[in-house]
């Protein structure tokens, strides 16, 4: 059976815009405010990462300080180390996201250390969070394949998930960073993970590079996963995963959930408008079939 309540974690302002050089701070603020107006309640607003590595996220503090979102909105940000966590805390971020991978090669390229060193680096981040009443979310990238090493063993994914949960993450988001997964692979991975981890501690984070994200989400929902990461207008990619396209579009996920009778309390029209506005700034069209269909109707 499908879960009756599904939570969407909107990652467009971070996962989407981390790849886009030309977006101003004001445009980011407008996007996040519009996402809040559309009803999104979990919004990843930026990344406190090294500006030398990802210059696109260098204004995350300014963005967060400038927001005017509904008070129920849970704003989160990537915090790869203590420096990032301290900067996020300073602007009032109430949820940190730490991120590693199930692939050594990807972890090295992405955060310049091994998987086990990344876990060590996260310890003071989690301590700072605990001392300040901040929640911590964990990400595991490359759960269904790696751009550098290819196949990734589900056992490795399980091991990394367990470590993140044991250190205090309330949830782990499973990233198909390069969008290579198919529903049978999702099923095999989740079957293993759910033997050890309860469904309410897992989220899925699918990129749509090969057009499989909605099929994969449908499979994950069927298996009881009730938190889905997505990006308005299908924005995104990953600077350390060449060729990876955006996250599954939030508009498409909302449409799917509505069709399944799971009402996610999101105003689809407003959401699509938020997507068109940011895409105008990027000089491109949304990568969302639903958004294009809605536009065609008016
Ligand atoms: P490093 O170079 O190994 O770190 O980077 P370091 O500690 O040696 O520091 C080097 C310099 O960076 C120093 O400055 C530090 O102060 C500075 P310098 O002395 O040379 O002037 N620095 C920082 N500045 C600002 N904020 C910080 C920070 N930390 C160090 N937090 C580090 C290690 C992790 C920082 C770096 O590799 C990094 O920032 N990586 C970011 C990678 C990233 O953002 N990737 C994209 C997000 S992950 C993703 O997209 C996947 C996901 O969506 C899930 C999925 O799809 O799978 C989440
Ligand atoms: Mg991602």
Automatic annotation (TrEMBL):
Transmembrane segments: none annotated. InterPro entries: Aldolase_TIM, HMGL, PYR_CT. It comes from the Bacteria. CDD domains: DRE_TIM_HMGL. Its EC number is 4.1.3.4. Keywords: Lyase, Metal-binding. One of its GO terms (molecular function) is hydroxymethylglutaryl-CoA lyase activity. Residues 6-272 form the Pyruvate carboxyltransferase domain. GO terms for biological process: ketone body biosynthetic process; L-leucine catabolic process. Gene3D superfamilies: Aldolase class I (3.20.20.70). Pathway: Metabolic intermediate metabolism; (S)-3-hydroxy-3-methylglutaryl-CoA degradation; acetoacetate from (S)-3-hydroxy-3-methylglutaryl-CoA: step 1/1. Belongs to the HMG-CoA lyase family. This is hydroxymethylglutaryl-CoA lyase. The lineage of its organism: Bacteria, Pseudomonadati, Pseudomonadota, Gammaproteobacteria, Alteromonadales.
